[in-house]
Design a protein that fits this description.
Strand content: 5-15%
Number of strands: 10
Distance between the termini: 26 Å
């Protein structure tokens, strides 16, 4: 594993992702530095933008960014519990690129020529849980105080006066010289503008002094706000009747009730897109968490639940990318998608997959990306890490047809496996 010093010495930037090839597996810390380099011209180029999607719950890469394509001798794909049955087959070499996708990530296939994938990313030697892992994947470092990618880029663009839009706490560490704007504030602003008022619920800000300053500043950007509202008029979809009825019962006027009901249908990434389009923001960080949707962090019934849950996340990301492309922004925007860690190759005793810190994958789209490129492989999935050997010939495992058999237990839960791969 190359360290930060080695990367600084060798990195050539995301404009040529072959610069990552000397990293086996790719260093995550190289990603944040490469992103900075890819957007370096953004200090003088007003079109440059950056978006970080953090998908919480840990996505199984074999269902998404790193499918098993039968290239490993001696192991039947079905023995890895991949969920490739029926129509759920991986897409190989999409549009003649190096990009192959699992069934959950089919929605991003149209962007194959504008994306790259870093595979085999090592998160750490121990399973310390989701907060540690998502911090590592968000910053390239394990320190809780380490700034997120978005903080680095936001600081780089601070002189432009544009916001960093986020729907979750943004770890800034020692970097503080840039303004942030919450998607909850933008949602409230949209509702009030649709209602024809300039009032706002300032309580959505944690700091009251900051709330007044940011609100007044936002109100002064009338042209940007007009574009923000205009573009969301095409994004909001149908009115949420249940929310509308509830607002009426609470005494809201029909117009306010309608504005709130429509705004409820907007996802945080819709608000982020409108912010980037309008010029309110040049940087966004959006957390995709479980709300009404099915959780990703299941340790049971993987085949029945994980494919559908992951697909919803990728469909949301694909919609965002489609909006960028439709408005000629994708080529100007570097979009990075991360999750905490991968999942184990095999199932545990409950038919689910557990945490796998040894083999993660990251997707990149747009600005500065050598499209259609894949870097890295599953170099860390081996017996030393408590998994069956996936680097060459080996004994075939028991078929998935017998889930009650010994093979249906997690490879990380079997006797002799490292503690960090046991079910948490």
């Amino acid at each position: 594993m190359s360290d930060r010093r080695e990367f600084l010495k060798n990195i050539g930037g995301l404009t040529c992702l072959s610069a990552f090839e000397h990293l086996v597996p790719p260093s995550l810390s190289s990603l944040v530095l490469g992103a900075q380099r890819a957007l370096a011209s953004g200090q003088t180029d007003p079109s440059a933008r950056f978006v970080l999607f953090r998908v919480h719950g840990a996505m199984d890469s074999t269902l998404g960014l790193h499918p098993h394509l039968g290239s490993i001798q001696g192991i039947d794909p079905q023995d890895l519990f991949l969920g490739y049955e029926g129509e759920n087959q991986p897409l190989e070499k999409v549009d003649g690129t190096q990009i192959s996708l699992g069934p959950s990530a089919r929605a991003i296939a149209p962007f194959a020529k504008e994306m790259a994938i870093l595979r085999g990313i090592y998160v750490g030697p121990n399973d310390l849980g989701h907060p540690f892992a998502i911090q590592h994947m968000s910053s390239g470092r394990t320190q809780e105080s380490a700034p997120h990618f978005s903080a680095y880029i936001g600081n780089q663009f601070a002189h432009t006066g544009a916001y960093v839009v986020t729907n979750s706490p943004l770890q800034t560490g020692h970097i503080t010289s840039f303004p942030t704007l919450l998607t909850s504030v933008l949602r409230e602003q949209l509702i009030n503008m649709a209602h024809g008022t300039k009032s706002s619920t300032l309580s959505v800000y944690v700091n009251s002094k900051q709330s007044v300053t940011r609100f007044l500043d936002l109100q002064g950007q009338t042209e940007k706000l007009a574009r923000f509202v205009e573009i969301l008029g095409h994004q909001e979809g149908e009115l949420d009747q249940q929310e509308y009825d509830q607002q009426i019962r609470r005494g809201a006027s029909p117009s306010m009730a309608s504005a709130r009901a429509k705004a409820k249908n907007l996802k945080d990434e819709d608000l982020a897109f409108a912010s980037l389009y309008s010029g309110i923001a040049r940087v966004a960080q959006i957390d995709l968490r479980t709300e009404e949707e099915q959780t990703l962090d299941t340790h049971v019934q993987h085949a029945e639940t994980h494919l559908a849950a992951q697909r919803k996340r990728w469909e949301r990301i694909a919609k965002f990318l489609g909006n960028l492309r439709q408005h000629d922004l994708l080529k100007q925007t570097l979009v990075v998608v991360v999750s905490e860690f991968n999942r184990t190759p095999g199932l545990n005793a409950n038919g689910g997959k557990d945490h796998n810190y040894s083999d993660n994958a990251v997707a990149l789209f747009g600005r500065g990306v050598n499209g259609g490129t894949v870097i890295g492989d599953r170099s860390l999935l081996n017996e030393a890490m408590g998994f069956p050997t996936l680097s060459g010939p080996g004994p075939s495992l028991t078929s998935t047809q017998g889930r009650s058999s010994q093979s249906a237990k997690s490879y990380g839960s079997r006797r002799g496996a490292p503690q960090q791969y046991r079910k948490t």
